[in-house]
């Protein structure tokens, strides 16, 4: 008999109203997935559907073992990160079911090793830490699942210092793979700042133990920031490519986008721009435009003229967007290169910008005008013409003023012309002050408009 894929699930089973009201749709999905995991003694003969089938299925939820519910939760979470957003109501319902199952305080549940293991998996899968803490005493004191659960509670309850100490000697490979993958993910995440090299190795291990799952998606996403911290541009590009190819439709993809943009800006001197273009090309046009505009904006604020121009140019090839010109102009402002900046900014169509972008454009215009105004950088950079005395009689010597009472050294210093390098130094200092002030203003504007629409 040839193997075939699962039959499509009818659309009406994905409707949140039906799922939340009875849980029948949840179980229709969960029970077939669990059939292979059930011991033969728990298997039941197949029967025809009766008018009371829905009631029987609902009642059957009560007799499900905790590990079966938790396994169904994992399957739903895996579907979710692969782009099946209709699974979100299912995830919430299964978490509620698992919570209710562990909250019964039925010690008979924990006679089964699968249920003891499922408790710690539930804790690492978004479960209620209060329920986990109350259930742990039902596990024996020497049970490794209980000891691990106690360590996990530090992490899920937001106690990073205690969690780091607790996980210090924990080896993910000492546990079954369906537990060890979570342990590797948690430990790698906690170590990302203190020990990024080992953290990246742990996140790699989590990915190897859990391909195609929520764990792999989270490990890839978190690895980007670690690779950036290690200044490993090649690995950054490789991880980004793997994420986009597998998990671009994940509900957590916005967090990937944040890390992706930040990493490109931080690694701009070494990152392979062709590789970046190849990765972004895997996205749909709107996503491509947003990514490039975000890179251009960040690069402009940081004064990275070349990167801002690169990203703005890429955005313009996808769609004609005035924001690309705006961010390219901003990069010129922050760099102090004002030759063409005024003309570029004047060409931007204000009416096509959002209110926040108009504020940014106004600020950029004001700063650019200040740079080219008398006394600005453009003016300060011009050599001062020597003063030419008119031909005529020498000036009349007047009576001594109060300055005549100065000490000889001071009087001599006043009468001496400034050293040759003084004017140049003053010009450089003035330019640096104006540029620094410009960047501070742009940073303040950036903070002010905050989450501006992309």
Key words describing this protein structure:
single chain; 454 residues; disordered N terminus; mainly alpha
Q: Report, as a whole number of angstroms, the end-to-end distance.
A: 53 Å
Number of strands: 0
Q: Helical element count? A: 23
Assembly type: single chain
Task: Report the structural category.
Answer: mainly alpha
Shape: elongated
Low-pLDDT runs of 5+ residues are 1-61, 376-421, 448-454
Note the run of SSEs as H and E. HHHHHHHHHHHHHHHHHHHHHHH
Mean pLDDT: 76
Describe the biggest sheet? none
Helix content: 55-70%
Strand content: under 5%
- Radius of gyration of CA atoms, rounded to a whole number: 33 Å
Report what the structure shows.
The model is unreliable at 1-61, 376-421 and 448-454 (pLDDT under 50). Helix 11 runs antiparallel to helix 12 (214-229) and helix 16 (285-301) runs parallel beside helix 18 (322-335). With 454 residues, this protein is mostly helical. Helices cover 64% and strands 0% of the residues. Among the domains are: 11-39 and 60-138, no CATH class; 284-383 and 422-454. The protein has helices at 16-22, 24-35, 53-63, 66-81, 88-102, 113-124, 129-135, 144-156, 160-166, 177-190, 196-209, 214-229, 233-247, 253-266, 273-280, 285-301, 305-318, 322-335, 341-346, 355-372, 377-380, 408-415, 420-449.
Brief summary of the model shown:
The chain has 454 residues and is mainly alpha-helical. The chain contains 23 helices and no strands.
Helices and strands, with pairings:
Layout: H1 16-22, H2 24-35, H3 53-63, H4 66-81, H5 88-102, H6 113-124, H7 129-135, H8 144-156, H9 160-166, H10 177-190, H11 196-209, H12 214-229, H13 233-247, H14 253-266, H15 273-280, H16 285-301, H17 305-318, H18 322-335, H19 341-346, H20 355-372, H21 377-380, H22 408-415, H23 420-449
């Amino acid at each position: 008999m040839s193997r075939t894929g699962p039959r499509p699930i009818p659309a009406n089973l994905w409707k949140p109203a039906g799922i939340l009201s009875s849980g029948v749709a949840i179980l229709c999905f969960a029970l077939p997935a669990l059939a292979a995991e059930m011991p033969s003694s728990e298997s039941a003969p197949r029967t025809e559907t009766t008018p009371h089938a829905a009631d029987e299925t609902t009642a059957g939820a009560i007799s499900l073992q905790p590990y079966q519910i938790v396994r169904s939760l994992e399957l739903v979470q895996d579907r979710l990160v692969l782009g099946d957003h209709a699974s979100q109501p299912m995830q919430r319902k299964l978490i509620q079911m698992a919570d209710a199952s562990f909250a019964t305080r039925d010690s008979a549940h924990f006679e089964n090793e699968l249920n003891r293991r499922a408790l710690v998996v539930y804790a690492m899968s978004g479960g209620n830490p209060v329920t986990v803490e109350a259930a742990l005493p039902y596990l024996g004191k020497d049970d490794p699942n209980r000891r691990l659960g106690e360590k996990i509670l530090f992490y899920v309850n937001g106690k990073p210092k205690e969690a780091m100490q607790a996980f210090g000697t924990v080896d993910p490979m000492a546990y079954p793979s369906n537990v060890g993958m979570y342990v590797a993910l948690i430990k790698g995440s906690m170590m990302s700042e203190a020990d990024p090299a080992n953290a990246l190795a742990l996140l790699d291990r989590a990915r190897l133990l859990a391909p195609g799952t929520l764990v792999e998606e989270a490990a890839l996403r978190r690895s980007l920031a670690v690779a950036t911290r290690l200044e490993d541009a090649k690995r950054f590009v490789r991880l980004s490519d793997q994420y986009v190819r597998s998990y671009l439709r994940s509900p957590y993809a916005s967090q990937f986008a944040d890390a992706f943009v930040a990493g490109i800006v931080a690694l701009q001197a070494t990152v392979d721009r062709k590789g970046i273009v190849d990765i972004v090309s895997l996205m749909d046009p709107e996503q491509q435009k947003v990514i490039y505009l975000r890179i251009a904006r960040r690069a402009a604020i940081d004064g990275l003229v070349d990167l801002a121009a690169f990203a703005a140019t890429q955005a313009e090839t996808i769609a004609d967007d005035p924001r690309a010109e705006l961010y390219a102009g901003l990069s010129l402002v922050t760099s102090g290169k004002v030759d063409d900046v005024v003309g570029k900014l004047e060409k931007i169509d204000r009416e096509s910008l959002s209110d926040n972008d108009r504020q940014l454009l106004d600020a950029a215009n004001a700063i650019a005008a200040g740079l080219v105004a008398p006394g600005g950088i453009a003016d300060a950079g011009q050599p001062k013409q020597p003063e030419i005395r008119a031909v005529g009689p020498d000036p009349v010597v007047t009576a001594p003023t109060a300055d005549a009472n100065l000490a000889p050294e001071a009087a001599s210093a006043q009468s001496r012309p400034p050293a040759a390098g003084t004017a140049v130094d003053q010009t450089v200092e003035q330019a640096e002050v104006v540029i620094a002030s410009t960047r501070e203003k742009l940073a303040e504007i950036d903070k002010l408009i905050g989450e501006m629409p992309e």
